[in-house]
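Entry 12.
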Amino acid sequence: MVYCGKASQGCQSCRTRRIKCDKVQPQCTQCVRIRKPCPGYRDQLSLMFRDESSKVMQKAHAQWGVSEPSELGEASGTSPTTTASPVPIRSRSSGPGGAASPSSATLATKQRRRRSLEETQLPPEIKETPVDKAIRFYIERYIIGLPDEPRTAKDLQGIRWIHSREMRNIMAAVGLAAMSNLSGDKAMNTLAKQHYGQVLQNIASSMKNIAALDLEVVLRAVVIMAVYEVTRPRDEPDSPARTHVQGGAAILSSFLPRGQGPADGARGLLQLCFSVVAAKQSSFQYSSLEPNHMIPSSIEPSCDGTLPPMFSDWISISQKMVTDADRPSAQLIGVIARFVQLAGLVRAQPHFDGHPSTTDMILQALEIDEDLEAWEARQTGLWAVVEERVSDDTFFPPQAVLDGCYHVYDNTYIARVWNHYRWARILVNQLLLESVDRFPLSSASLIPPTRQHRSLACIARLARDTLVSVPTHYRHPSLREEHWPYFDKTKWGASIGVAGIPTLLFEVKVAGCAPGVPMRHRAWALEIIETVYKKTGMFQARMLAEFLRKETERVRVSSSASSSVSGSASASLSPEVVSAGGGEEMGFYAAVESAVVRQVPIKVEVAGGVGGFL
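Predicted 3D structure (tokens):
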């Protein structure tokens, strides 16, 4: 490796004159002496982003005795071979659309792949401090390559917000916490807390002077503080993260009515509102003994669906200021908020089979599902979802792209809203199916076998769509440069790439734990979440992977038991008799899933004559 010397943090004038800079604030002594304005000093972050490629090559050629760079290249007249990219096949669309045009992208050579990898990594510094390493870790794994973020380290050079004091501290905090998770070094976690505390102080100080507030830096810092909360080890990461998201929504909503917010401020506020309801729903699993169930065996008073007092005001502001193109998202957020409130009510309050309140709860769930179904039916044109697959089944790494299929949306904001719709509708249908098990008397007339089949089919479809959408939101480490153009058909539009990762993890977990989902889809979802943890060190991913792993094993055992019991009657089309009591939690689902596959009607019998819980 060619050593180019330790980078100087002196001012440009002193470095040009090749003299020592004392870096005195506000101007160095050398510039004052010659009566010239001092151009200022470079910080460590700027040094990380500098391009030293030409200097390295010059010194390397000098050491190797090579006069011309062409002498290192291939022989004259030769050229790297290329292979034509597979043609995308548009297999399914939720709206009108023509056939996909063949892509002009070509497969990269090994040299191009190596160069692409180098571009996505920052140049290592001599004697890096732990903070420098943490910032590098964050930039390489939480920024570069994610949708709506710079593609290479070089692209970061012109970004203003990344050089702010608040951003440097919060990037260091997240990077240190993540590295601590992966290495087990507790000292890094302690240092992460110190930098996190500095960010809190800086933000609090900034809020004292609203007129001078840099809204872009503050909002981005607040969002990344929420990312820090899901990265650091804790039993319930979503609760403090939700507090930061709510704070960001409060700040943004105070600027929008005065016309002082960003041009896409209403979209940003809606994104924060979606994050609030998703984090609220996700928080139920951390304090529950049955994290993968919508209706627990016993009440959980700590799980309530109460949303922030200002939440309705945020939605109202968004609906008044949202563009016509984004209006479907403003219509959807209210429906999902109703569902989260209902889901919390189901967990926190007792329900009895046959009681009017239980019947009312089921009716509310059915009404919410109808509203969600109607919302999906209205989405055409700009909001249509197109599924494509390539003609070469081996082109995409199977662990990164499910069955070689991917989605194309107009922009990443629309893609995120669709996934919010999916997790909400999966869970509302799961609630309906669990109501058949827990409350057979109340649900008998409201959720007949045909409605149960519809719910299972809906869950299976939306769970698969969630998994197929993953490359739009997260670029798996196994994806290469030649794969990106297929996913880049979805334009940018969600502002902060990393902000979508915690919610995506929750959505993938919901899809992997849903009833009726094939085992291979569960396994694929688990591998995605585990990959995110190994890549980012995000502690939330580790916890969700454990939830999904336990649920997958439980379903596997229950399905095996159910198959052995009903094997002799597998050829019969008589009604499937399912026990809905006696504490057999997954037996009902296993039997229903088996019946759906064989198109067998379902008959529910209640063990002991009564279902329900206290």
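Annotation: The chain is about 55% helix and 5% strand. Residues 539-566 form the longest helix (28 residues).
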